């Protein structure tokens, strides 16, 4: 099965889990490269908006890693709202954690708050 986003796996600052990929956003150029590569793909992009000071985000981190390992067909991007205020503003990530689901460059859904069951449900719904 071919993919239009093979370059995502070459993006620096990626964290491989057993079966999945989390791309840690380190620069706007990296974000733009990932986002642009996903526009031409029907793959699900899950943007995990987080912050170092966010307790619920820290509590969700191990759950997110486990979820990522179950859905290797999706791409997960971790975005620090303090470093990327413009990206957070674009997606109205005002309450954390926030997970925004994107396909072909368009937001299709979101989960706000530490809700791992809802996160899994929405990934299941949108992954194909």
The CATH class turns out to be: Alpha Beta
Spatial strand arrangement across the major sheet: 1-2-4-3-5-6
* SSE series: EEHEHEHEEH
Low-confidence stretches: 1-14
Instruction: Report the structural category.
Output: alpha/beta
Count of alpha and pi helical runs: 4
Q: What best-fitting shape do the alpha-carbon axes yield?
A: globular
- Any idea how many domains? 1
Looking at CATH, the homologous superfamily is Glutaredoxin
Largest sheet descriptor: 6 strands, mixed
Average pLDDT value? 86
Give the terminus-to-terminus CA distance: 13 Å
CATH fold-level name = Glutaredoxin
**Number of E strands:** 6
Assigned CATH architecture: 3-Layer(aba) Sandwich
Fraction of residues in helix: 25-40%
What percent of residues are in strands? 25-35%
Taking all Cα atoms into account, the compactness measure Rg is 13 Å
Structural features, described:
It comes from Raphanus sativus (Radish). Residues 1-128 form the Thioredoxin domain. Pfam families: Thioredoxin (PF00085). This is Thioredoxin H7. The protein is an alpha/beta fold. The chain has a single domain, classed as Glutaredoxin, CATH 3.40.30.10. The protein has 4 helices and 6 strands, in the order ββαβαβαββα. The chain has a 6-stranded mixed beta sheet. A hairpin with a 4-residue loop joins β1 (14-16) and β2 (21-24). It is globular and about 35 Å long.
């Amino acid at each position: 099965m071919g993919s239009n986003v093979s370059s995502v796996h070459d993006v620096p600052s990626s964290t491989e889990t057993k079966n999945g990929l989390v791309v840690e956003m380190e620069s706007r150029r990296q974000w733009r490269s990932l986002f642009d590569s996903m526009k031409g793909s029907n793959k699900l992009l899950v943007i995990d908006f987080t912050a170092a000071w966010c307790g619920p985000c820290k509590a969700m981190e191990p759950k997110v890693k486990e979820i990522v390992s179950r859905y290797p067909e999706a791409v997960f991007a971790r975005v620090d709202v303090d470093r990327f205020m413009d990206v957070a503003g674009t997606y109205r990530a005002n309450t954390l954690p926030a997970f925004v689901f994107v396909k072909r460059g368009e937001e299709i859904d979101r989960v706000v708050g530490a809700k791992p069951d809802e996160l899994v449900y929405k990934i299941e719904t949108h992954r194909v």
